[in-house]
């Protein structure tokens, strides 16, 4: 058995030296499931990273950070850090985004919770049916599974 046959599947055929050489000269190696530098630099991905970095920050109604947040304050703060401007409230943010289907949603899109036509909560989609959000008084910014089907999705452009 050659040494190449024992190399993990991510390096098969390229070989360890080849991958390191490519990286050293400024090339890139594509690894499935890992965001490329270009993808990591998108405003949506940056906003998602900012929101995740606020894990454990206390909820405070009307707060827009950097230490305390309400739901739309967290999305406003996260996108501002990513270079995008959003209005203040969840309903205003919904009206400002490009509305997309659940099937089209991507990490970093906004998830709007509604009752009828009333938008009452917003979070940032993290993938796998979960959002980063600031839930309510007495709680903290956290990653949580979407708990209802009464949601709409919006993409910040």
Overall description:
This protein is of the alpha+beta class and 157 residues long. Helix content is 27%, strand content 20%. The chain has helices at 16-24, 37-40, 43-53, 71-81, 90-96; strands at residues 98-100, 110-115, 118-127, 130-133, 142-145, 151-155. A six-stranded antiparallel sheet has the order 1-6-2-3-4-5. The longest helix has 11 residues, at 43-53. It is globular. Residues 1-36 have low confidence and may be disordered.
Quote the beta fraction. Answer: 15-25%
Strand order of the largest sheet: 1-6-2-3-4-5
Percent of residues in helical segments?
25-40%
The number of helical runs is 5
Unreliable runs, pLDDT <50, ≥5 residues?
A: 1-36
The whole-number mean of residue pLDDT values reads 83
> Major sheet, described briefly?
6 strands, antiparallel
Distance between the termini: 52 Å
SS class: alpha+beta
DSSP, total strands:
6
Q: Topology as H/E string?
A: HHHHHEEEEEE
Please give the radius of gyration in angstroms: 19 Å
Taken from the alpha-carbon principal axes, the silhouette is globular
SSE topology sketch:
Layout: H1 16-24, H2 37-40, H3 43-53, H4 71-81, H5 90-96, E1 98-100, E2 110-115, E3 118-127, E4 130-133, E5 142-145, E6 151-155
Antiparallel strand pairs: 1-6, 2-3, 2-6, 3-4, 4-5
Helix pairs in contact: 3-4
């Amino acid at each position: 058995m050659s040494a190449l046959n024992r190399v993990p599947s991510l390096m098969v055929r390229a070989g360890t030296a080849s991958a390191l050489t490519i990286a050293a000269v400024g090339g890139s190696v594509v690894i499935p499931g890992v965001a490329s530098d270009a993808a990591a630099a998108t405003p949506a991905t940056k906003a998602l990273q900012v929101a995740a970095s606020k894990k454990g920050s206390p909820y405070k109604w009307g707060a827009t950070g950097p230490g305390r947040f309400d739901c739309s304050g967290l999305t406003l703060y996260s996108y501002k850090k990513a270079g995008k401007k959003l209005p203040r409230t969840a309903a205003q943010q919904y009206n400002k985004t490009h509305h997309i289907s659940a099937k089209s949603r991507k990490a970093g899109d906004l998830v709007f919770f509604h009752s009828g036509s009333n938008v009452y909560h917003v979070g940032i989609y993290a993938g796998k049916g979960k959002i980063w959000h600031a839930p309510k008084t007495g709680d903290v910014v956290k990653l949580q599974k979407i708990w209802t089907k009464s949601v709409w999705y919006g993409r910040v452009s």
